[in-house]
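Q: What structure does this chain adopt?
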Amino acid sequence: MITAPPDRDLELNQARVQPIFSSSSATSATDRSSLSNLSEVLRATLEEYLLEAQITQVMAACAFAELAHLGVVRKSGEPYIVHPIAVAEILGRMRLDTESLVAALLHDVIEDTEISKEEIIQRFGQIVADLVDGLTKLTVSNNKNDNKAATLRKILIATLNDPRVIVIKLADRLHNMSTLSALKPNRRQEIASETLNIFVPIARLVGVNDIADQLELYCYQNLEPELFTRLHLELEGHYDERLLARQHWADAIEHFIITNGLHGRPKSINNDIMLYQRFLNEHTDLHTLLHTHAYEIELESIAECDQLANVVRDHFIWSQLTDHIRNPLPGGNQALLLSISDERGRLDITLRTRLMRETAQLGVVLGETGLQSSRSAIQASLRNLGELIDKDCATNTFDALLDYLHREKISVYTKDGDLHELPQGATAVDFAYAASLYLGNHAVAAKVDGVACPLATPLVSGQKVEIITDDLATPNPDWLGFVNTGKARRAIQHVLKTSNPTDRLTLGQQALNRALQFYQLDVRDLSDQDWHDVLAWQKLKTKAQLFEKIAVGALLPQLVATRLLSQLSKLKPSTDAKSQLQALNQSNNLIAGTDGLDVRYAPCCVPILGDPIDGHLTRRGLVVHRSRCRNLIHELNRHPENVVHLHWQDSTDTDPRFPAHLKIDRALTDDESTELIYLIRHFQGGVERLESHEDSSNLSVLVRDRNHLARLIQEMRILLDFPSVTRFGV
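A:
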């Protein structure tokens, strides 16, 4: 593990990646002479906030767990009881209740010992036993992935009944991550990857951000040890320079606070998480990172936060303000985030009140004493997690969870102020179904911030939405072309499938007609040959079957219209074999549900396999964009009915190569260019173009998918001494 001298500044000490909530029992248990010392450290933590009778309960559970795990050792060689005591201590520093602490001490006894749930009920009560049972792994088959999916589904279900389950699980994972050095490298990477993909985002959703930060640091340390070490050593090597710069920033900010009569002071905070995120994920160059600092300022009120932000911004040439007080982050995390810069570098300032700070650390742990924004956001997230649970298939639950955790989210409100969390790109229809089944099934229009809007209107964070209903109204198949949530899609399809068969034929024909009308066409304009082509495309015999398929949501009318337009106009995509992008345009088996359509990949954003994608329906066919493409967002705002959400096929028979265009933030020498080309070929990538300019270089490569590109970029940065590398479209 990388360490720094103990008298160095905070960010270097924290680079040792010690858990924020742990005492020395969690990090240096092997140095203790006896397990009784561990118990005493735990007792000392609990004496800070529990009654003696409660402490006695916890220590009784500690003794019981020690006996249950007697003779068992961890991979590190420590007695197994070290682990549950460390987990309990993490929770003790979060001031969790007695039942949570007892469950933490017992969380592995059902799984690893002969102790049954019934015995735990008899000794410690039903609530503790349920908490422990919720954390106990399942074995449903000989397949490790099936068991992991089943266990995670069980934890989700238990969390919905009692959120303390996920908090204990996160503390358990935090201590396990702190002791990964005892495992083989491949196992360390496997656990770190799972933690980064699942438990870090869950921790942020329930508002325990300090645990999330520490978990994320451990993940970086184990997934990218070379890059992690390099950044740490650079920070240490520039210690004196950074210390002077930070004092400069502290003096300036303190001056603003005093002269404006505000109540607070700049507090140096550990910004390692931000530095590593920018270094590893955003590929920011080392020079910029070494001149980036962070302070947190705790003020008495939101008004003081606003006042100080305005004062500071007036004194710097460049500043950027992000308001997460009115627009909270996941978990209800609130703050004003202010970035400023001068000749010494960049300063990131977090402005918040004391309660905002406490809420950002403890989230769901605070219960009713936390901020209302946090409680609302966490409840919205838990509702969404509940929607993901597939009672029949744990693997489906696992896949849906991964998709949910890694999609960008927005927070929108009812007119009464109730918060609903939706994926980015969600529409008023998605909101209606999130609010209630009745609103979704009978929606006819929406008001967004008081302005009447179509139901296809995409929403953004912070908006207030009101749904206009009519008891006689029902969903129509058009909605499936723009809804963005599984809940809305399932509800719409259920209504469509259960409608009257005769009504379904009419509904399907009307939906197709509306899709054609956008191109100034009508179903009556279609020739017999047109109908023959489209029916053959769908392997159907009659128009009625086509209308039925549209009506029940099995086929989007927009896709049928696009197919017909493509046939009518006789416009086919180019077949220039010299362009990899145009070659991809001939592939029609990469995107789910697009067989037989003319599919093209947008040159503006150049999507590759694994990118989140959406489609734009045009006369030429379906154009695939990355979901955050500016051109697509512009089209979504103008004609949302022509933008459809897309998914890559789970597997294909081909091995496509996708072009990706990169900018390297410095010029390359001839030798570096040669080494770079060799590196890319070594990692089974292709080089289409490499141009070096005065202060940057442009590189076009061919890759298999998003993960392949990410690995190439990391290897390129190591080779070229860590410049910034960004991906862009052409």
